[in-house]
Amino acid sequence: MTIDRLLVANRGEIARRVLRSAAALGVQTVAVYADPDAGAPHVAEADRAVRLPGGAPADTYLRSDALVAAARASGADAVHPGYGFLSESAAFARAVAEAGLTWVGPPPEAIAAMADKRAAKKAMRDAGVPVLPELDPAAVTEADFPLLVKAAAGGGGRGMRAVAEPAALPAAVGSARREAESAFGDGSVFCEPLLRPARHVEVQVLADAHGTVWTLGERECSAQRRHQKVVEESPSPAVGPALRERLCEAAVRAARAIGYVGAGTVEFLLGGDPADPGLYFLEVNTRLQVEHPVTEARYRLDLVAWQLRIAEGARLPAEPPRPHGHAVEARLYAEDPAAGWRPAAGPLHRFEVPGADAGFAVAPADSGTATLRVDAGVVSGSVVPTHYDPMLAKVVAWAPDRPTALRRLAAALAGARVHGPATNRDVLVRLLRHPVMRAGGVDTGFLEGPELAGLSAPLADGETVRLAALAAALAAADRERAAAGALGTLPGGWRNVVSAPQCRAFDGPTGRIEVRYRSTRDGTAADGYGEVRPAGVVRTGADEHSVVLECAGVRQTFAVAHHASPGGGTEVWVDTASGAVALRPLPRLPEPEPARDPGSLLAPMPGSVARVLVSVGEAVAAGQPLLVLEAMKMEHPVAAPAAGRVRELYAGPGAQVGAGAVLAVLDAPAADGPAGFEEGER
Amino acid sequence: MDDGLDGIGAVDAGERLASALDTSGAEYAARRAAQLERIAALEREQAKAVAGGGPKYTDRHRARGRLLPRERIELLVDPDSPFLELSPLAAWGTEYPVGASAVTGIGVVSGVECVICANDPTVRGGASNPWTLRKLLRADEIALANRLPLISLVESGGADLAGQKEVFIPGGRLFRDLTRLSAAGIPTVALVFGTATAGGAYVPGLSDHVVMVDERARVFLGGPPLVAMATGERADEEALGGAGMHARTSGLADHLAADEYDALRIGRRIVASLNHRKAGPGPSRPAREPRYDPEELLGLIPEDLKVPFDPREVIARIADGSAFAEFKPLYGPSLVTGWAHLHGYPVGILANAQGVLFSDEARKAAQFIQLANRSATPLLFLQNTTGYMVGTRYEQEGIIKHGAMMINAVANSTVPHITLVMGASYGAGNYGMCGRAYDPRFLFSWPGARSAVMGPAQLAGVLSIVGRQAAAARGRPYDEEADAAMRAAVEAQVEAESDAFFLSGRLYDDGVIDPRDTRTVLGMALSAVHGAPVEGAQGFGVFRM
Asked: I want to staple A442 with a disulfide (CB 3.0 to 4.6 A). Which of A304, A446, A468, B91 is the partner?
């Protein structure tokens, strides 16, 4: 059997990843896209693309029928589900097969066997794979705490609750049940002992349909926030040869127990004595993992290509390739650590990771040289939609040794140019440079612990922000001169009589920053910057400058980019060796704030009040007439500019009012909560 | 190619001048040191103007939440744009403070070059003295001649009553100028920040666009005390002339600004909406930096005005690409004439080389000025002249006739003239080289420049000779001691009164400039003159051949 045309039932970086391997094998490709993704790179990169009308996942990427119809319409003969969305849906796998298409994934039975976590645990225990004991929420005793409440149908940390003491259990069970019910349509939950400290280690398996099962080493995934993996690496610094053997042996047993075919991951928890930890089965992910590039880098193979070959019926060689060196991956999310890690969205003006050796493929490596791979779902100019998982990209470093791999990855992230929504980039850089990470000591509790606050601080300190503002001001001045309609060739800011310096103000991470500078015969001088000397401003692109500042003898380059803000105005991004700084230029002459109450309604002209149509306390809709003014024999209704509630009425019927007199004051309705977003599976 | 024009077939404006200036010699260092001293003195005098009424009054002004005049200008002009302050030394050497309680200049507002005039309310309440008046009238003249919109930043207590006799009658021109500007299609904008009483009230009254700052601007013909005197009415200031009243009731204000910043914002918006276009052509080619550093001008200028210097060395440091197409280089060599570009604008240059103007130089100048008028090319006069040659031989050759030809040509030329007094400007040479009386659009001086009927020593010597002759005629002995004292006194007085600061104080130039800024200042001036159409003269006076 041969696959000639593959539909990728996914979006973002994983869609691009699968498309790349398919194309490399000569397979024609079909993308699908929801409306917010119409301009996404995966759509442009596929040979064909089919629209899934709508935006929400439930209307688009989670619509089994629409995806099968898309495959039919585009003449695809196979479907790759990626990860998340329907990748672990046995029903979807069956629907694909029933449509006469090849399913690039494990058999539906294997998916189904692992879908219910409780049933999966039982199957594994029966197969001789160590599992944590299951506790009945109704029968636990004080000695069982702390424990974990889990949704049977769970995934991605949802429906999961850590409970420290018996009193908190009923509430935790209730909320986990509700969350599971809404997320998975199945509210059943169970309990397990909560291991602390613990590590999350998983084994990559690859099995063909002819009985060969490979294990491709382990991945260490303990760096997690709210059960969300952040950094993954291979090999695990906590796993020695003996433990690795036990892990791989258990993984093979698990895969065989369910007749697994294709790429999959067996997740384990390591707990207890670090020298001789206990090993417990957690779950099997019956799909490609987000972090699969870590394994690809070490084994120098293409897991997606193998998925396709195995789906075509190919045989694996008897033995897997030998691993090399160390690989580590970081997940770059559009989320704001300073705002409770809220997912962020909006235009991504620039996305560049300088120094990448490859994208969506194993970087060619000479032994001894570190390599960098970037799998991104976005490109410069993308808009990060609100509907989906906010992961922007995975950045993977490989090196012959672990310290170099960590250092290379931290440097790549620190040097990345990410202009747009807030990201966790600085957290990743700090984590990769953290002594505990360098010592290999990060367990699953690390990012929930006291270190998080320090890790969440921006890389750019106050001084860097100040210097970035100076660089931004100098770049802005250069822009201003270049665009000057008059006297553009004369020296910027020249004065024959010197009085005040030029002044530019920005709103930045440390609040309002004012920069004062003046042009002198020896170049630009900045007031209040002490030893800092501007040493050059070079225009490097349409809205791009390279500004060199000499600080006490040390030259630093600041890359300044101006982007048009979606809400009007400008955003300035300054990338420095000490972190990135986002600034918003403040107008020199701001429009004055009206001194009156914000909801005031003013008489548009002098006249008398003919009628009052509302009363104090009444809720009004936008555009609803509040009163009628009579002037020059004409009636002029005065309407509410926005919905709200009438707080004050200053004029009764018959009252004479002057132009600009306040007639009424409206209170704005309570602000809407932030729009929720829906996540795919991870 | 270093000038960016070679290789695309563009014809260069002239030969690249080769400098012979030795920048490593002792003479260069000494001249440079002397110039730096003069520049330091200039900056000290300018700082006096910037200091306004001094810390006491500026602090009080700021404490009232008000901006200083230069702060208002800085916020009004486009960020990072150049601003050329005019007549900063006005009133220097008079009984009034340097700067004459006003700031005027040329700046870019919303992309439009404008003349900006601001009262300095920290100097005697911003009241106008005779020098304030002359400074403001000069700014009006520049706006009118070059068709530049005029923006007045008003906060003035009116005429300085002690000096009213010198202000009142000629002061009427201020109002006349405003309405004539408007009639000529040159927009006028008044931003009123504070009091504008009596005469001051007509500035908004006669401007095309008026902005008043709420609760700050007070505009009335007569304030409450005057009203009480005249009619017995007890008038409320706000009702009498408040910004709110003028915006809502009298209609004198077109815009009511919430504060000073808002007034400046509205002012910028008004200018942006003027749809004002310059009537003259733009630069005819891209600007190029000179090949020689303007900094070197400091080591070029001799300390002693009697020592001539080659003006080509100056041109090499101000002209685009240091390129200069010289006209008649072998004829009348004491006057250098030729064509160049400055910030992309074509310009004809007349520059004194050896100080004296002979008949050939005068004829050469008259021909060159006619050529410039045929091609509608602006003229730049670089003055360093001791005047027309005297003596029997020269009189017989017709030096008067030939000097008259040159003055005829200068006086009737209609292309824009810009004059720079580099060194000496003596005698009729001042006239022939387009001195103040010949209405150049702009006239600037280098520090150390001198203008007078003749050099101080010559003038004293002439007086001495005349006195000696008179004594001899009456058969009286000549008092040599008194003669020496007289010569010293006259020399000192002429020395002081021919000084650039002194003449700048009396508004006989538009400012004393740092020689290193020459290219920038001339660039702004040239850009300004192209606000008006550039047209050559149709005819001249009868040339006495």
From this structure: A446
